[in-house]
Amino acid sequence: MSERNRLREYTQPGTWPPRRRGRLAARIHDLHEGAYPRLGEAAWLAGGYPVRGLALIGLADDRGVRLNGGRPGADQGPDAFRSGLAGYGSAESVGLQGLDAPILDLGNVIPGNDLHETHARVTATVSAVLELDLMPIGVGGGHDLTFPEVRALIDSRFRPAGQRIDGVYFDAHLDVREEDGSGMPFRRLIEQGGLGRLSLFGFDPLVNSPEHLDWFLSNGGELAEWSSAQWPGDRAQFVSICLDVLDMAQAPGVSAPNPAGWSVQRLADYAEAAGRQSSVCCLDLMELSPPYDKDGRTARAAAYLFLRFLSGFAGRKKAAL
Q1: Whole-model pTM?
Q2: 249/2 Cα distance (integer angstroms)
Q3: Which CATH class is domain 3-313?
Q4: pLDDT tens-digit readout, 268-292
Q5: Cα–Cα distances in Å, from 33 out to 13, 46, 299?
Q6: Which of 27, 32, 294, 321 to pair with 164, CA 20 to 30 A apart?
Q7: What are the extents of the domains in the chain?
Q8: Sheet strands (E) in 2-156
Q9: pLDDT tier for residue 42 given thresholds of 50, 70 and 90
């Protein structure tokens, strides 16, 4: 089975509102509508590998959130993100000058009968994306889905080459719980091996236990403080943004609202820096929960973060295939 057919097997179409000409969303190719572009020979460096485009992957499942007692609704996050992006961002904006990388919407991964089956489907989908030389951009969905997404990177590319991948994540929570749920992804990644440095921004000491912090620090994690201008790029990296790192005044539509979080502008500076780094080979935006999203402001913030990432990506070095 071809990689494109595998993608159609594991995913179903996402839902877009009408995409107006002149918006960035109108440039996004929809796999399920048959609008799969000819990718050509242009490529950009990503984690030491060439990529020929970006692939949006809807991680439309919130079983992990519900297992951890969070507010349900993040399974609707990918389509809310599409709605936010459809109405925001000019295709020919000053900020996106030079962005000629194709962007594909692969739809939403079809959830399985339980958490582990869903994780297996996410890993299979991301593995197929990598075989097509595309960079995965996950949109979710419970933060547990970062685990199978990054697992695909490790198992498909980095472990076979004897390499490690670093992680940078933005979250109020450590997410190193032992039990299954949205609070477990980084513990699982550390336990399965293949990770190097793991850097967390946005840590809230009031919502994390001493035991979890001790485990995180003793297993190679760091509470990071470097600025967006000082982004270390000596090894391949994934970047994961849990939207609950943002202040609930700007991002009410999340699984666990944060009364003292970051501003969108502060986080966006890091998102753009991540896009600019040739070391970054994967991004996700997680735990967008539309039922709590007044006026769609969180979805719009997520779209803005993605656009700022693209603004950085537009300046990446080209690579030969």
Answers
A1: 0.96
A2: 45
A3: alpha beta
A4: 999 999 999 999 999 999 999 999 9
A5: 8, 27, 24
A6: 321
A7: 3-313
A8: 11-12, 29-30, 44-46, 49-51, 53-59, 103-109, 134-140
A9: confident
